[in-house]
Structure formats: C-alpha cells, structure tokens
Design brief:
The N terminus is likely disordered. This protein has three domains: 209 residues, FAD/NAD(P)-binding domain (3-Layer(bba) Sandwich), CATH 3.50.50.100; 207 residues, 3-Layer(bba) Sandwich (FAD/NAD(P)-binding domain), CATH 3.50.50.100; 83 residues, Recoverin, domain 1. A seven-stranded mixed sheet has the order 7-6-5-2-1-8-20. The protein is globular and about 90 Å long. It contains 19 helices and 26 strands. It is α/β, with parallel strands linked by helices. Strand 11, helix 8 and strand 12 form a beta-alpha-beta unit. The structure holds flavin-adenine dinucleotide (FAD) and magnesium ion (4 copies). The site of one magnesium ion has 7 residues, from strand 21.
Amino acid sequence: AAASSGGLVAYADSGSDAAVEKPQLPQRKKVVVLGTGWGGTTFLRNLDSRLYDVQVISPRNYFAFTPLLPSVTSGTVEPRSIVEPIRRILEKKGGEIKFWEAECFKIDSQNKKIHCRSNIGTNLEGNGEFLVDYDYLVVAVGARTNTFNTPGVVENCHFLKEVEDAQKIRRSVMDCFERASLPFLDEEERKKNLHFVVVGGGPTGVEFAASLRDFVTEDLSKLYPSIQHLVKISLIEAADHILTMFDKRITNFAEDKFGRDGIDVKTGYKVVKVSKDAITMQNPAAGDISVPYGMAVWSTGIGTRPFIVEFMKQIGQGNRRVLATDEWLRVRECDGVYAIGDCATINQRRVMEDIAEIFRVADKDKSGTLTVKEIQDVLDDIYVRYPQVQLYLKSKQMNGIADLVRSAKGDAEKESVELNIEEFKKALSLVDSQVKFLPATAQVASQQGQYLARCFNKMKDAEEHPEGPIRIRGEGRHRFRPFRYRHLGQFAPLGGEQTAAQLPGDWISIGHSTQWLWYSVYATKQISWRTRLLVVSDWTRRFIFGRDSSC
Ligand code: FAD
Ligand code: MG
Ligand code: MG
Ligand code: MG
Ligand code: MG
C-alpha cells in the first residue's frame, strides 16, 4: 500500500497555482475512472488533473482502507475511521474532477462509451441509466468474492470485502452471544450458536479468525462468563496449510499459535455445502462431515465481476479468467482502455516469443552469433522488458549473463564464447518459468495507480517523442518503462498483539515488536490526517477501555 503522501502535498500547491495561471488547454482529453478503491483513488491522487477532463464513477462515494476491515469486525476500529469521502479527496485536487455515484454495467470499447446506472433511488428517469464518453478509460473496479458456486454460501455466509460486511459480521457475532445466552436453550444449541467458522486460510481469513479470538477472550469472556467456555472458532482451508503465500516459517508459526490459542485449524478440508444450520466439508480421509455453526465468514479468494466477464468476451478474452493487460497496463486490442488492481492481471511477455527478435537486435555486427559483450550491451533493455530474466539468474545464483552463456556452452572459454541462435534459445529456454503473477493486494493496486498516473501526466510528451528507452521488439517502442512492482513486504496479524511480517529480501519478523511495526505502518499509510487521527485514537481507546460490545 504505497499511497504517496508526498503527492498530496504537491497537489495542494499545484492546485492553487492553477487558480492563478489558469492553463486552459483547449479540448482536454476525457479520462473516465471506474472505481474508488485502492487503484482508482491512488491514480486520481497522483494524476495532474489539469491535463484532462476527469470523471470518476463508482457505486461507493468513499475510499475504504481495506487492511483495517478485520479490525472493524471486532470493534477495535470504528467504520468511519477507515473511510474517506471521495469528494474530499477530489476537493484537495482543486475540485475539477467530476464524480458520479453510479455503477458501470457495460463497456462499449468500439464506440468508447460506458453504460452506467445510478444506484440511488429507483424513481429516476429511465432507471437512472446514462452514457459516458471517454478517450481514456481506467478500469479499477476490483473483484468480487468467489464462492466457487458452492451451494448455500451466498445465502448463509458473511463476506468480508466492504465496510458494511464488517459491520454486519460484528452485529452477527454479538447476536450469536446474545442468542446463546437466552434462558430456554440447551447446551448443544448454545454450542452451535457459539461456533464461529472461517472458510479460507489466506491472509484475510487468518486475520479475521485471530481478531475474533482476541475479541472473545479479551472482551466478551468478561461479559458472558457463563457461556464463554462453549465458544469455538474453526478455520477451514482446502490446501495443506494456511497462509501458503507466506514463508514456511510464518505458516508454521501461525499454525502452532492458533493451535495453542484454541483455534481449530482444519487443513485439507473443502467446504462443499452450507445450509442454515450446518456446514458440510469434505476430506479425502474423513469423507463428508457436517458441523453445526452459529456464524460463518467466507473468505476463499476473488473472482471477476460479471460486467468485466462480458467485456472480456467482447474483446476476445472470453477464454481467460481475469482481464489481461500488457506491462503498460493497457488492455490489449482495446484503444485507450487501461486496467489496474484486482480486476486485472498483467500478461508478462515471454522471452521465447521474442527470442529471434532479441537475437537480431543484439547481434549488432550481423555476424549471426552473439558474443558475451553483445548480449551485455542489450541486457538492461532485456531486464526492463523481461524481468523474469533477472529473477531466473537470481534463482540459479548466477552472477550475470556470462554464467548463463557459459552454462549453455558447457565450460568453454569465457572470452571467446559466441552463441548462435539455437544456443541462445537454449540458454534462455527456462527463464520464462520465472514469470510472476502479482498478488491481488492493495500494494499492487496502488503502485499501479501511481504508475499509470505518471504515464498519463507525461502522455503528451510521449506522443511527441515516441522513441523510448526500450528498443527490444518492434512493437515495443515505448516511451515509458513497463510497470514494475516493488514488494514492500506483507503482514499477517495473528492475534494477541503478535504479528508476522515478511519483508523484502525474505526477511522474517514475528512477534510483539512486529505488531508495533504493523501499528506504525498502518498509521502512516492512512489516506488523510483525519483518518490517521481516528484510527490511532480507536487503538488508544481499545488499549484503555477494551473493545465496545454494544451494537
Ligand atoms: P477495490 O479497492 O476493491 O476498489 C474497487 C472499486 O470499484 C470500489 O470503489 C467499488 O465500489 C468500485 N466498483 C465496483 N463495481 C463497479 C462498477 N460496476 N462500476 C464502477 N465502480 C465499481 N491488501 C494489502 O495489500 N494489504 C492488506 O493488509 C490487505 N488486507 C485486506 C483485508 C481485507 C478484508 C480485504 C477484503 C482486502 C485486503 N487487501 C489487502 C486487498 C486489497 O484491499 C485489494 O487488493 C485492493 O482493494 C484492490 O484494489 P482495487 O482498486 O483493484 O479494488
Ligand atoms: Mg479501485
Ligand atoms: Mg479499497
Ligand atoms: Mg491485479
Ligand atoms: Mg555478433
């Protein structure tokens, strides 16, 4: 989550300059942004909005700081502390950007129009539908929760995606405790009501389970002393481990800690059905088992929104699961459309697709062979265009391309080595195995928003000087470097004031001190001083008085 606060300050200044100079550019191009989440908001905050006629469309008129949603479910943080009205964000940019609270339901890329529907009230003329033209469209609509079509999930489970979801979960937890306290229930029914099930052992499911356990042991146990021993929290994961995207050490620590904390971690179980009273899961050894539950939260990954699926069919991506862009975040074959964040994925170009072209460009003396020096001369370009090459060399602990060349040639003399096209192909044949897909995180979405805004800010410049630094491949003559993700690390809060963190360079840190790192990072990443103050005061209030259990 790398929203730059530096950008904000700069814009406050340029906004007032604009008022004085009024750089009225005739016929500004129309930029339409879909979504006010991590991707869309970061794009808007970094865009020089004087250069374009900007319109923002989203069914939600605020930005939500999603990493703190699990804290909202337990009342550690209040809902209003993690949201910032989008109009306030836009106002800081000089108020030139228009916002429509509506949902896009169709993208017509042929005519460069989008179809929208206002979701406020139903008595609007023509169902509140309207059309918006664009020159450039930035699709940042995020994803939806994926139920894998498991029966009963939509009807009976909570999701944890939006602020309302977190509020509903909190209310539902309290309802379960109150219901379990009623005088006419027997022990079994009390147990059922106090069985909380979390489906999905990814970062969100794990953090939610941990924060629920804290809420129960630190706060609710005092208020419901006669039933607290009946509470059970289960975490169900289909894979063999939880937190599989993290380092093994973190996974092990989390599983051990949850074991000690009394969270029942069921790995290797796949939920196949959810009814009003029971969850049915499958395990190769144990077969089908059904367990009664009081409340369930479904958190097993994300899927594509239906109107994006339609759009993909329309542009020939119907056989894909996720909308694909190139490394410049442009939707292929679709003039002026960009996509960032959870709704899209970058289709990294493979070295093997371009190997002949790379060879031709590198072979400056047209000798039909490449020397180490010839390869070295184009290496920086290759690294920029195909980051997998660098990752491959690193994974094989090779120091540079010379090692690769030598390995392709057996152990021939370093200086005199020359590769023909076949040998060059062989040398690079495995590099594409290192192509990495970026995770669906706020960190990726915001870095993409920032990158794209910078490209937009320099677009005019680029159109006038199309010759860019990337020379490999004919089609690839771009002014801008492709998007490059910088991983700043990831946290996994595990409850009891303990957090695990995986930082760049595979640096692992686990424990109470990491929890403090977590507090400081998330305080810093807040989008405004208002939310920062609110979040910090929520944390302070929690330390002093505990969590609030009324709702
Ligand atoms: P979103 O932020 O989801 O924004 C999508 C926007 O599009 C919303 O404003 C939505 O209202 C709008 N929209 C939806 N449909 C339409 C439509 N039809 N037309 C117009 N607009 C539309 N990531 C991390 O890096 N660190 C974390 O700690 C972390 N914790 C998380 C905890 C939880 C509980 C959740 C749910 C997510 C967490 N994430 C975290 C992931 C992160 O929130 C997402 O990766 C990120 O929000 C993706 O940004 P986005 O802009 O693609 O989508
Ligand atoms: Mg967004
Ligand atoms: Mg968001
Ligand atoms: Mg993505
Ligand atoms: Mg040569």
